[in-house]
Amino acid sequence: MNSPQLYPTAQISHHSLHKARHCEMSSDRVEKPLPDIPEDDGSRDDEKCFGNVFAELESVDLPLGTTLRSVYDDQPNAHKRFMEKLEVRIRNHDREIEKMCNFHHQGFVDAITELLKVRADAEKLMGQVTDTNRRLQDAGREVTAQTEEVIRCRIQQRNMTTTVERLQLCIPVLEMYSKLKEQLESKRYYAALKTMEQLEKVYIPRVSRYRFCQIMAENLPKLREDIKDISMSDLKDFLESIRKHSDKIGETAMKQAQQHRTFNSVVQKHDSGMGYTKPVYSLNGRTPTQHNGLAAEEGIDQPEEEGVEEDQSEEEVLTAQDLVDFSPVYRCLHIYTVLGDRETFENYYRKQRKKQARLVLQPQSNMETVEGYRRYFNQIVGFFLVEDHVLHSTQGLLTRAFTDELWNMALSKITAVLRTHSSYCSDPDLVLQLKNLIVIFADTLQGYGYPVNRLFDLLFEIRDQYNETLLKKWALVFREIFELDNYSPIPVETEEEYKSVVSRFPFHDAEIEKQDFPKKLPMSQSVPQIYVQVKEFIYASLKFSESLHRSWTEIDDMLRKSTNLLLTRTLSGCLQHLTKKPHIGLTELVQIIINTTHLEQACKYLEDFITNITNVSPETVHTTRLYGLSTFKDARHAAEGEIYTKLNQKIDEFIQLADYDWGMPESDGQASGYLMDLINFLRSTFQVFTHLPGKVAQTACMSACKHLSTSLMQMVLDSELKQISMGAVQQFNLDVIQCELFASSEPVPGFQGDTLQLAFIDLRQLLDLFMVWDWSTYLADYGQPTSKYLRVNPSTALALLEKMKDTSKKNTIFSQFRKNDRDKQKLIETVVKQLRSLVNGMSQHS
């Protein structure tokens, strides 16, 4: 404890004494006052002026700079006068001070005297106070020590209280930070972000002045970045895994769509009662077990497979969410949303999915097989099912516009890939399997809201290609049938065999039915086989039209158009190719004509067959008619033309065997051997023509006779033949007579009168002219419609006559002595001249 401060009594006494002495010294100066300065008018003005200045100078508040400047700047010599006035002013103040000191001097002296008296008492009192202060200090030293101890304890208590309060504030922060670490370790990143937000906004501001809180605050942004990186890594792993699971997702979804479609198809057929059965007959007697590539694989219209589908439908229905864990997407979306960077995440996710879409849309390496197409479709379906799930399970991560854009891009790529790869497919079974896969693919995605009209438009393009492959396949089938056919009527031994043929081909003939067994049907075995294969083609074409979401009217139209293509292009082409084959003879051509006639008659049954399938009346305005009538007519005409051609070729072969001795003096008296063989061949051939339509046989017979007549005429008029004797003409006449006898024997019924004999009329008139040597009549009646030799052309007669004239010249050495021969030679020369004039006249007239 500090001692009380004592008054300095001795010091005051010395000061008072000093001051008193000063006053005594000053009193000596006061006794001699300062002399007064005389004043005039000018000094009064200066006094007044400088009085104001002195007032300002003596004032403490006013600044001195302005006042002094005014003294020096007002007028010249102002400084001197100011100094003079200032001296006067100082002397005046000194006089006033001296007056005041003189007035108070005595009182001051008295006070000092009294103060000196008190000095002794003051020193005594000072000693007492000092002693008291010492004793007080000694007594308070222990109290001071205890007080200091109390103060120290109080400070410790206060510090402890403060520490407890600060710890109570820090403990929640530390607990929250510990909770944050646990959440990060357990990968609960979304909760960790919420904890960070609470730390930053609530807890850390309360204790922000502590260093550990500053370290925490600095560490939180790093933790956020770590969470973003970890969540993004999880998302990348998800995107990688989803590529592997897309195939399984798509496979599951397509199976479910297939089950649904199969169930609906069975229900519709059961309700409508439009089921149809397939024929059991196939080429070479084989029974078809399937008519398309997916019959056994896809479970379409297969009772056994329907049972399997029912068993599968009882299994648990799996969805994309069951096969794939979408939590990385949701977690990453929430994390970026909380961090205010949602747009970056959305852009990244969409960009990556676009890249994956382009990879998924790349065609597989084994697109030439069904498995390759199935895997391709499974991956695409899986991809877009994931997109659909993300679209509906998140808000804003994907938009309908984005998925539509992605789907439109995919559609363009899918159609391009399918159009390219399917164009190389030549197997109709594979094309049909591809169609069924496309339908299931389209139905699956359509169930999730994706537009698939372009896929069905593509199916119509593939349908045309499918029909092309079917046509190529059936062209091989038809050619095989034609190759294996024996081109002879079908022998029927028993009633069962007859019913078997009739069950496969609609044949009805009352006369044949009345005949006893064994008997023969007019067509060959290829006819029922062709008919059955046409029905098989219709079934195969119908398979592609199923599930295309088209009306039965459109399906009916498609079936009829494809059947027309089969008849008018494939079957007609095969028939044309068949008739052109060199090994096909006249007998085979006749049988082909008979076959085409029966196939033409069966076309109406094919139309009824299509009508029974589609239930579309043939009287409908837009119903397409089958062109079988024209097809088989064209084939028949081609076969008829081949008959005429081959018959003429055969005649030419016999003509080439002719070996006339054109210089023979006389004929042999009988027809040539080659000609009799030719006539016998024609007789036997025309007997085969009895099954042909009458006009065909008659045309063939007339064509053969005309060709024979023309060939014989060309033989006589051949330019390489230089000479012909009369004996050769007579022999040639015998051969022509045999031809005329053949024509008059009516080898083919139906000719009226001597119509067939007219084929040889040119030869007959020419030979009669030379045999009778009736030149006068020919020349006289030439150009008259009633002429006996109307069909003899002057140029033809001239050519033959010149050949005979050359023969006459060779015999001139012996015949010049015979008058008849000389006359005949002259006659020939005269006739030749007249014929040449006729020929020249004809050429000028023309």
TrEMBL record:
The organism of origin for this protein: Oncorhynchus mykiss
Name used for this protein in its record: Exocyst complex component
Which UniProt keywords are present, listed alphabetically?
A: Exocytosis, Transport
- Cite a single Pfam family from the UniProt record: Sec15_C
Which Gene Ontology terms describe the biological processes this protein takes part in? Answer: Golgi to plasma membrane transport; intracellular protein transport; vesicle tethering involved in exocytosis
- Superkingdom is Eukaryota
* Entries under InterPro entries matching the protein: EXOC6/Sec15, EXOC6/Sec15_C, EXOC6/Sec15_C_dom1, EXOC6_Sec15_N, EXOC6PINT-1/Sec15/Tip20_C_dom2
Classification from the root reads: Eukaryota, Metazoa, Chordata, Craniata, Vertebrata
Q: Which residues form the Exocyst complex component EXOC6/Sec15 N-terminal domain?
A: 85-254
Gene Ontology cellular component? exocyst; plasma membrane
Annotated region Disordered: the residues are: 26-45
Role according to the record: Component of the exocyst complex involved in the docking of exocytic vesicles with fusion sites on the plasma membrane.
The similarity annotation says:
Belongs to the SEC15 family.
Give residue ranges for domain Exocyst complex subunit EXOC6/Sec15 C-terminal: 455-803
**Record carries keyword Transport:** yes
Transport as a keyword of this entry, yes or no, is yes
